[in-house]
Amino acid sequence: ICISSALVGDSWCHCGFVQYNACEDEDLNIHYIRTHISFTTICDSFTELIPVTINGRNETDETECEYWICNNTYTRCDGFWNCFNGADEVDCYSSSLSFNCPYQHHHICVSPHTNQFMCLPLEKANDGNIDCLGGTDEPKLCRSNDYQPSDKNFQCINHTGELCIEPLHLCYKSHCQDRTDIQFCNYTRDIPIHSTICNKRYENIRSKVENFFCVRQLDTNKPQLVYFSLGKLTNSANQMIQQHTNEMILHSSTRQIIINQYEQRCHRGLPLRIRLNIDKNLTTIACLCPPSFYGNMCQYQNQRV
To answer: What's the CA gap between 42 and 53, in Å, rounded?
Structure first.
């Protein structure tokens, strides 16, 4: 059907809800994301693309991801477990929690027995057993279904059936049969009975454990469009430019001409920075040569007939 442009984005769905509860004339950005694949969100463990039938098979942005590196510059330390075991979020938040795990490649979470921070090996992450308070080591239990974002990410450990609650309900009244949603709370403060410690006004009086649960990233905050970024490479690029710069000043009566050796590295080609190691921020420079040149600096010319 055809509708007036004045009806687009008026909070009413005139075209009718299509598959996966998307409305073409309302959720324009969401509809675009659902129908156009984005390279930076391919194989990030979140399905953004509505299935497309190709050669009789339903394909999405999460199919055939067996050889895709889940811990990359777009997923590293973004607050979401893009790797099944959360390897892309390890060693990211120790300083903000004021807790340093003495072991490498361990998650930081809260012990359900002591209500204190502890270290959890990667092998125990998403293994089907809840080892951490709130089930933070098992995000798949509370993670929303594809296309349906959810802000309920605190898992009750011993509850009849799976129950996930919102952080705003923590330390207010117990919603979990085992009372794990209030067992870590500090009740010595003067907070109105109908309020919650996760209210922004109480941000400065939360304990570190309370703050850990209140400020956890939610699925609803996951960016649906991720743009290309150099990330940590910005500073290292500037440092390398300074290290490889050999300025030659040519005096003339009107000006000084500065020739940057770094910019002249690739003869008639383009310098590219290649990432060697994400954690150590190791990179190298390579040259993208035009068809008529080759060599590590495009210094050789192909024979021409």
So the answer is: 17
